[in-house]
Write a structure and sequence with these properties.
153 residues; mainly alpha
């Protein structure tokens, strides 16, 4: 939605390779989370959607906003599902030490945050530097064969 189609075959191959890599990362993440006994359930998704509804001022306001953006409830649920898996992976893999949490809570603007909220923010700040190398290690697993599609004709 809203993105121009790649202009050349090379751009198209690059786009497809990025899409496949993203899908592989998502699947690996979900399997890792589930292997650690954590699952994203309909109840969790419902709770996230209730938070979104609250931010929009209720279910009717959210529905109007979704209509304006041409987003279905199924798409919103899928987005929330993916986000919950991503956050759970971050919670499992990215550490947030007591010292980091204390330092975060001491910052201006952190007043009123709980330790859990501060820990989530600390993890988010460090996620990029931890998650990509972590997923790269998972991709090395014996069940996955990565093919360079940019060389396919």
């Amino acid at each position: 939605m809203g993105q121009a189609a790649p202009a050349s075959p090379d751009e198209w191959r690059h786009h497809v390779a990025q899409t496949i890599d993203s899908i592989i990362g998502e699947v690996l993440s979900r399997h890792y989370v589930e292997a650690h006994g954590m699952f994203v359930t309909s109840d969790l998704i419902d709770a996230e959607i209730a938070k979104v509804e609250s931010r929009y001022g209720g279910a009717d306001a959210l529905r109007r906003a979704m209509d304006e953006m041409h987003v279905t409830m199924g798409q919103l649920r899928e987005t929330q599902r993916r986000g919950l898996y991503a956050q759970t992976l971050i919670d499992l893999v990215v550490p947030a030490t007591d010292a980091q949490i204390d330092a975060y809570l001491a910052q201006p603007g952190a007043a009123g945050l709980t330790r859990e909220e501060a820990a989530t923010r600390v993890r988010a700040e460090h996620a990029a530097e931890v998650i990509e190398p972590f997923l790269a290690e998972l991709r090395k697993g014996p069940e996955i064969q990565v093919i360079d599609i940019t060389t396919l004709e």
